Amino acid sequence: MEIECLDFSQDEFIQRFNGREKDVLSFYEDLSYDAESLKEVWERPAHPHTEALADIIEEEMARYGLSGAQRENLERLRQGSRVVIGGQQAGLFMSPSYIVHKIITLLVMVEEVRESHGYEAVPVFWIAGEDHDFDEVNHTHVYDQAHRRRRKIAYKPNLTVPMSLGFYKYDRGDMKATLDAVVEECGDSGFLRSRKAAIMEMIDTHEYWTELFHALVHDVFSEEGLIIFNAHSSAVRRLEVPMFKEMVERHDEIDQAFRSGQAAFGAACSLPPMIETDTNVHLFTGSEENRTLLVHDADGFATDKGVFSKDELLARLEEAPETFSNNVVTRPLMQEMLFNTLIFAGGGAEVKYWGELHEAFRKMEVPMPIVVKRMEIIHEDMRLRKLMDKYDLEVSHRLHEDVERKKKELLDDATDASFLKEVDDMQARLESDYDAVEASSERTHRHLIEANLKAHRKQFDYLKRRYQLEVRRTLRHQLNDLEEVAERILPGGSLQERIYHPWMFPGIDPSTLSYTTQLTIIKGV
């Protein structure tokens, strides 16, 4: 296995952020991934509820079978050690691959912080079980090698799920059928050969969408000591009651700080708004039936159960905290109010979200952690490498353009230009003859001549099209090779990790990687 790192990001802001430019860092409390910032954040006092939070997480994780490394990290968490944290929605069978890469980022950074700085941080992966965007998580993509094309596989593609995913009970039969479809395309991997039966058992053992996702993540990363946090846990919601209460009480302050901070961030960084929301409360209420974004006006708080006064809303919070959840504005605040965070690792959009929220953090007197961009990883197996060497291609933003250029060169070289010229000359001579006939004919006959000429033109066009098709057929293998390279590395112009299922690729040993803001290319497996 060979690892190569490549400058790849075309996002100007992310380039500036990764370069830790001073005017950008000012929106992130001037913190960097360096010794000085690590020391500053590590020495912050721990939250008083830290032990209770660790107890809840341990109880939630115990049903999946705790590894020794997880027990050690839970004890570190209980004692106030800071966390390296990231989160994601519960994608179908851990798809797409960047979910796994986000977790690997956490593990790589924890190891680096320990080895280089002596801090025993704890890796925490946050499952966003309160999310309700089912269309984002109900499917995956695989590369169909037999037909050399991308294939979408979905669980109940026509199903609408209005509630939080943490409330959704999947259909075991349909889930197993979906697993079979994914494994059919990815089944050559050693992981699937050895784990398919275990995954089937997980489907039978669990009921809820996020439980199955948790079980799959646990199966892969338990020995790495990963702490898996279910944000939708009823016990966690009970612990969060004082935090939700403060957010309700101060919703105007949070909203105003968010909007002014967003405007300042956008103006300074030349960015359009990333967070778009019409609410002024930035919380959801909901149950097993639906999830509704709270809005406050002169009449009170509009909820999923009608309009509530503030006292009524707070009473509901005390009675049923599991029906409350955060939106994109308050979720980062809740994370930092819950956890003692050293580093938050997020995607490019998340990094921008946090910059837009800097004033809300300050208003709530919640200090930001160090914010970093998660690692981006793609796999380049031996087949891909051979194809890329054969056609002199490299991973770059121009890959699709380079592939189209190579295809054109192949077609141009294989095309007999003299043949096409002779066909054009034949058509020109025939049209000249028709012009002469038309000029000497009666006006009443000209429509017949024009119709006949039109038919001949169609035949000439057909001849040229058929010839070009035959040329393409003789090059079908080479053209398919080129299209495979583009489709497997940058499907639809997106990084491979954003589209394809992780089971398409071999597992990654985090100890072989170092944290980098460059694109990591894993070759040769």
TrEMBL record:
InterPro entries in the cross-refs: Bacillithiol_biosynth_BshC (IPR011199), CC_BshC (IPR055399), Rossmann-like_BshC (IPR055398)
Q: Please verify whether the record's keywords include Acetylation.
A: no
Q: What is its EC number?
A: 6.-.-.-
Q: Where would I find the Bacillithiol biosynthesis BshC N-terminal Rossmann-like domain in this sequence?
A: 1-375
Q: Bacillithiol biosynthesis BshC C-terminal coiled-coil domain spans which residues?
A: 383-505
Q: Give the GO molecular function terms.
A: ligase activity
- Positions in coiled-coil regions: none
Q: Which UniProt keywords apply?
A: Ligase
Instruction: Write down the Pfam families for this protein, in alphabetical order.
Output: CC_BshC, Rossmann-like_BshC
Give the superkingdom in one word: Bacteria
Q: Which HAMAP family match?
A: BshC
Q: What role does it play?
A: Involved in bacillithiol (BSH) biosynthesis. May catalyze the last step of the pathway, the addition of cysteine to glucosamine malate (GlcN-Mal) to generate BSH.
Q: Which family does it belong to?
A: Belongs to the BshC family.
Q: What's the protein here called? A: Putative cysteine ligase BshC
What is the scientific name of the source organism?
A: Salinicoccus roseus
